Amino acid sequence: MGIVRASVAVAAWLGVCSLLALSPPAEAGEPPLRFRDLVAEYFDEGNGEKLAEAVGWQDPVKTVVALEYKIVLVKDGKEEMVDPKAYGFKVGDQIRLVVQPFTDSYIYIFHQGASGKAGLLVPRENDEPPQVAARQTITLPRRGLFEFVSPPGDEKIVVVAAEKPVADRQTLIKILAKSPENDTPEEATVRASLNASVEAVIKTVQEREQELRNQVVKFRGVAGTAGHDEMVEDVRRRAVTRGTVEEPGRNADEGTVAMYISLARDAEEGRVPNLVVTIPLKSSARNPAP
Model's pTM, two decimal places? Predict the structure, then answer.
C-alpha cells in the first residue's frame, strides 16, 4: 500500500524500543511500579536511582529521553487503542497517531510506504521541526484520520524526538529509509547516535550483533517476565551503560512508552540526546463479504 493516507489532508502539526525493568516488588496491596511510573518520577523529582535500579545499575541515570505513543483504531464510531507491533490492520481501517513526549523535544515524523516511497510528514520541506513541550499531546492528522488503502503491505512511521534539531536532515531521511547493513561508514556512525528503539518484538541476528558492537541493549516487554530477567542479566554481564526500552500499555487507555536511558551525561560526551521510535503498520486485504 502507499502511505497510510489521511481521510482529510495531513496537517503539518503532529504530534513522535529497548531497556527497562520494574523496581522491586511492591508491598502487599500496592500496585506494581511500572516503566511509565519510573519515567514520570524521574522527570518530576529528578530521581535517577530508582530508574537505574530497575535496569540493574548501581549508579543513577543521567540522561533520559522518553515519550508515549498511541495508535487509535477508529471503527464504527468507536475508538480502540491497539499495539501496532501485535495488531494486524485491514485495508479500510482508519487510525490516528497520538504522541506525548516527557521532555521538550524537536519532533520529526517519517513515513515509509509498502511501495518504498518515503519521506518526512513532519516537518514539511524547508520548515523547521516543531518543538513540542513536555507532556503536550500531539495528534496526527490534526483533523480526520489516516486510512489504509490498497495495495496492502508493510509500512512504518518513525518518530524522532531530539533535544536539538538534527543537523543533517537528508542523511537522517536516508538512514530511516534503509536497513543498517546497507549503511556507509558515515551513515553507520550517525545511526549509532540515534538511539533507535527495537523495531519488532523478535530481533534479527543483525540487530543483536549491532547491539553488541555498540555496547547497548534494547528491550521490549513487561517487567517481571523471563525476558526482563534476561535483559537485566545481560546489562550486568556486559556492563551496558545505555539503551532503549519499550513498554506496551496494560490498560485500554494506555499507549506504549518508549525511552532512551544512559548513565552518562550524553551532551557532555558529544552525543545528542534523542530517541527514534519505529511504529510498524502491517495491513492485509479485507476479507470479501460472504
Answer: 0.80
